[in-house]
Amino acid sequence: MPSLNVSFSDEEMEGVRAAAAAEGKSLKQYLHDLGVREMHRKRFVAGATAWADRLRGEFDEAFPEEIPPSQRGDGAAAA
Question: What is d(CA 30, CA 76) in angstroms, rounded to the nearest whole number?
Fold first, then answer.
C-alpha cells in the first residue's frame, strides 16, 4: 500500500495533533481522512456546479428579474 512522509513545523504538528485528538482519531487516521474528505468535497463541488450550469437557463427563464451574482455589484461573484 502506498504511503507518504509529510513534514510539518513544530507549530503545525501541534495543531494537527490537537485536531486529530479533537476528532478522537490517531494522527495517521486523521490525515488519511482529511485527504479523502477533500477529494470528496471537490467531486461534490464539481457535480453541484455542473448541475447548476445545466439548470441555469431554466432558472433564468423562470425568474427573469433575478440578477446574476456576477452582475450585482455587491461583491458577490459566481463560484
Answer: 34
Mean pLDDT (whole number) for 53-79: 76
C-alpha cell at 73: 455589484
Q: Where does 1-79 have alpha helices with state H?
A: 10-22, 27-62
Q: Is residue 33 included in any domain, yes or no?
A: yes
Which residue range forms the structural domain that includes residue 38?
Answer: 26-64
Find out whether 27 and 17 touch, Cβ atoms under 8 Å. yes
Burial class (CB in 10 A: 0-12, 13-18, 19+), 50: exposed
Query: Does the predicted TM-score (pTM) go above 0.85?
Result: no
Q: Is residue 58 one of the residues assigned to a domain?
A: yes
